[in-house]
Known about the structure:
Blueprint: E1 4-6, H1 10-21, E2 26-28, E3 35-39, H2 43-53, E4 62-64, H3 79-88, E5 93-98, H4 105-108, E6 113-117, H5 122-131, E7 135-136, H6 151-158, E8 164-166, E9 178-181, E10 188-191, H7 197-204, E11 209-210, E12 239-244, H8 247-263, E13 268-272, E14 285-287, H9 294-310, E15 315-318, H10 326-337, E16 342-344, H11 345-350
Parallel strand pairs: 1-8, 2-8, 4-6, 5-9, 10-11, 12-15, 12-16, 13-14, 13-15
Antiparallel strand pairs: 2-3, 3-7, 4-7, 5-6, 9-10
Amino acid sequence: METKLLFPSPEALQLASDLLRSGQLVAFPTETVYGLGADALTPEAVAKIFAAKGRPADNPLIMHIWSVDQLEGLCRIPPLAEKLMAAFWPGPLTLLMPRTDRVPDMVTAGLPTVAVRMPSHPVAQALLRKAGVPIAAPSANRSGKPSPTTAAHVLSDMDGRIPLILDGGACDVGLESTVLDTCHGTPCVLRPGGITREMLETVLGTEVSVAGSILQPLKPGEQALSPGMRYRHYAPEGQVTLVTGEEKEVLDALRLLFHTSETAGRRSCVLCFHEHLEALEGCNPHDLGLRSQPETVAQRLFDTLRRLDQEGFEAIFSEVLPPEGMGLAIMNRLGRAASFRSVAARDALSAPG
């Protein structure tokens, strides 16, 4: 299959909508990451998403809409969800809501809820309007890999697998949307993103909880209620290890771990904040962005992880952020990229040999 890469001209948008309505796949930009879309109400089309990505069928998808009116007959909108829609839609917030039988089981992994969001990216909005159908769309990458934030990332993973990629430039947020469960008592963040827990609590005027699986793996047999809850996700080919502790000890440990790994014959690097590039000179430092500006760290994280694969690193040692505000979303992605492998800096520095 030939994969076309087109800028979103009126002609390209018409081609994309025709493909979607005929049961084909289209990759398109959103403000978070690039999505791999299919007509959400056609199971045969949705099945092609799983085939193209190599995605497990028990991992639910997000249904994208351009108007709340599209949800009529597809789901019930809880009062809390209505309040959040008014505050954050269109934008990077996905809401879990009770669904009807019109939503295919393939979209929801058989769950009684459906995940819905309204993207703010103008290309995504134009495509949704022109297609006239809800679009099921996970991130447009091979399953488990870092999510794509540019059309070039999508092409790298999907060339020959899908007919069309719409190139809308780099994504603004850089991490997938926040997913919030509004169906089971206290609202619960299942996946953190650009809409933080604190922002949700300000609008709702009530407590918002955070799923325990955000900073640790799912328990054996535990069902994934949201995309992004799987054990290893967003991961480069090399083994990522998170290094925790006080700043000076972390920097010392990063240098030690890097040199020990290199001595053992593994091509190694460190992921560090911009403020520490000079301190980690000689350790193949890769700039995550300013620690004081986590939004910039989020925006460049997946691009940085993809470059590590291009450069062939086998061992990657990374700084961490406090898991609060946008830092929670960043640590969720880094934790899953590392399969939750971490080492305390003090332990690394005191280890024998």
